[in-house]
Every structure is written in structure tokens, then in C-alpha cells.
Design a protein that fits this description.
By secondary structure, the chain is α+β, with helices and mostly antiparallel strands. 39% of the residues lie in helices and 24% in strands. The radius of gyration is 18 Å and the shape is globular.
């Protein structure tokens, strides 16, 4: 889809809302979970200094169920990485900083502006963020060796975000919470593992019942994506 990169945030968010309504509940149900017990919403999310429409699913799941659901979402939606986190786990090893904005003011545009301001304040803060309500959440996530992707220790990570909040204009944010959380990435390199093998290993294997269910859901997702791409002109040649 050569023109997908030109799609507006509103168009991406509209499509993500359709996925949230029509596809995500099917994925949750395939995992043997009552979809009504989880909440999924579309919020701004940042990765490598770009804001996109992000799907966030929240609920009370144990680690195994959460990782399996994350893998299922990544598998069907062809994501390279899915983040699972427990923001209330103060015993976790991932640095957490929450930047709060005045009620109703944290739009995708404002989130992107602060994202850029934070990275300009201290290189390394442009890795990623998520949004819940009026809070922009920054996790100093680490790789398999325990090294932060940001290249910053937790103290420097916090210092940069504090300074960015102080110097930021309107709407005026403040660092409202800091500490530790549990967070990890689950993923698949779709260029090398074209069948989603990285996810399949957590889903019972390529011949497992769950993967068969997800393959059927993937066909529904592909149809929705193709229909939207056709209506928006995303698949047209440049």
C-alpha cells in the first residue's frame, strides 16, 4: 500500500476503531476469554518519534494469558512488536514516568509535540510512549540483556522528561508519577519469519487449534484492510 504513509491520523484512528470493534473481540474470544471482561480503546501511541493510532487492551490477566493474547493480536494484525505491561507493579524492573496534561487536552497533536520536545531535551526519549486518558506514559523498556533501548539509565530518563515538561508550553504538563513497572515486548520479524513463527511458538505451534482460529480471523482482518485501503486510495501507485 504505497500511499498508506500519507494517511492522516484521523483515517488511521477510524480504521483502528473498526478493528477494535470487529476484529479484536474475535481474537479475545479465540483465546477463551470473555471479551466483555477486557476493554480496548484507540489512543495515540508513539514509536521512533512518530505518533500513530494505537490499540490498547486492558484487563486482569495472568502473565501467560496476557502474553498469549498479545501474541494473538500481533499475529493477526501483523505487528512487529506488541507491548505487555503492568503499570501498577512497583517491583518491576522497567523505569516508568507518567506525564499528566490538563483534563481533555492530550490530543494526538499535543502528544507528538511533547514526544519531539522530550527527545530534543535528551536524545533517547523519542523511542516510544502510550496514552491513557490525560496521561502520556513513558517506559524505559529494556532488551533481552536488560539494557534500555533509550540508552539512558532510569535517572537520566526521568530527568529528561522532567526538564521537557518544565519547558513545554501550553497545555502545561507535569510529571505526575514515577517509579517502576513490569513491561516486555513480544514480537516477530515478518521479513524473516513470514508466517509469524515468532508468535506461533507462544500460540501452540502452527498446527495448533488457536493458530487455526487466528488464521480465520486474519482473513477477516485482511478483507477489512483491503476494503478500507480501496476506499482511501492507500493501495494506489504513487
Amino acid at each position: 500500500m504505497p500511499r498508506l504513509g500519507q494517511a492522516s491520523y484521523i483515517d488511521r484512528a477510524t480504521f483502528s476503531a473498526e478493528v477494535s470493534k470487529d476484529i479484536v473481540p474475535k481474537i479475545i474470544t479465540a483465546n477463551g476469554i470473555d471479551a466483555a471482561t477486557l476493554r480496548t480503546e484507540v489512543t495515540p501511541g508513539g514509536y521512533l518519534l512518530r505518533t500513530n493510532a494505537s490499540l490498547q487492551t486492558e484487563g486482569n490477566l495472568d502473565d501467560a494469558a496476557a502474553d498469549r493474547l498479545a501474541s494473538s493480536l500481533g499475529y493477526v494484525l501483523r505487528q512487529y512488536r506488541v507491548l505487555t505491561s503492568r503499570l501498577d507493579d512497583t517491583t518491576g524492573k522497567t523505569g516508568l514516568v507518567i506525564v499528566r496534561f490538563p483534563q481533555g487536552s492530550l490530543s494526538a497533536t499535543v502528544a507528538q509535540r511533547f514526544f519531539e520536545a522530550a527527545d530534543a531535551t535528551k536524545n533517547g526519549l523519542g523511542g516510544g510512549y502510550s496514552v491513557v486518558g490525560d496521561e502520556q506514559i513513558f517506559l524505559n523498556a529494556t532488551n533481552s540483556e536488560g539494557k534500555p533501548y533509550s540508552g539512558l539509565d532510569d535517572a537520566s530518563f526521568l530527568d529528561g522528561l522532567r526538564r521537557a515538561a518544565v519547558s513545554f508550553g501550553s497545555p502545561k504538563p507535569r510529571v505526575s508519577s514515577l517509579g517502576n513497572a513490569t513491561a516486555r515486548f513480544i514480537g516477530n520479524d515478518w521479513q524473516r519469519s513470514t508466517r509469524g513463527e515468532g508468535y506461533q511458538t507462544l500460540l501452540g505451534g502452527s498446527d495448533g487449534e488457536l493458530v487455526r482460529k487466528l488464521d480465520e480471523i486474519s482473513r477477516c482482518y485482511a478483507f477489512l484492510l483491503a476494503k478500507t485501503a480501496d476506499s482511501k486510495g492507500w493501495a494506489r501507485d504513487e
